[in-house]
Give the backbone structure.
Amino acid sequence: MAEYALHCFAQSGHSYKAALMLALCDADWEPVFVDFFNGEARSPEFRAVNAMGECPVLTHGDLTMTQSGVMLDYLSKQFGRFGPATEEEHREILRWVLFENHKLNSFQGIYRFMLQFAPEKARNEDVNRFLKGRVTAALAVLDDHLKDREWIAADRATVADIACSGYLFYPREEYGWSEDERWSSIEAWQERVKALPGWKAPYDLMPGYPLGAKT
Ligand SMILES: N[C@@H](CCC(=O)N[C@@H](CS)C(=O)NCC(=O)O)C(=O)O
């Protein structure tokens, strides 16, 4: 049995943040597949693990954690990696973790879900246009922030970079972006993230891709 277990599924960008952190820290961890698209996250068994009914869930010994930001904070302390060096950095990291959770990854996740996975009868062009607008606005904020800096919250990679990675390393096609919808500073930053030792793409870290596959 591995030291850390992460309840997750391949299409979950929120889970990817924790999975990526574990990979970058070279942790002894294993994914526990959650059959999200068949309703497992709504089952009483899963609610007993996470009353919020969300992935990811991280277990470490007797400890069970939910919310990716909490996991990143915990793991940064466990491994002494990607954390803040000063109180100011701590505030800056927290600022970006809150932003990604509320404005970036929340809308990116829902937008992609509506495009790729929602049942036909739930799909709605107006809703998609609204979601795309929210995602685009959040990406513009991040892109502008990265215009003249290498990393999001410090002079090196921190959990803010890992948190913002959530949905950004899924294939572009999944969002239906056209070729001219580009964010050059984000894309340059993505190359730096990819160069971190141990980096892997979401579908190489978590089970359930392609849809229907468990491993
Ligand atoms: N704020 C949470 C968001 C987690 C989240 O929304 N996870 C999705 C999967 S990617 C989920 O389980 N959604 C279920 C739902 O919203 O009912 C975090 O950062 O961990």
The longest helix spans residues 87-117.
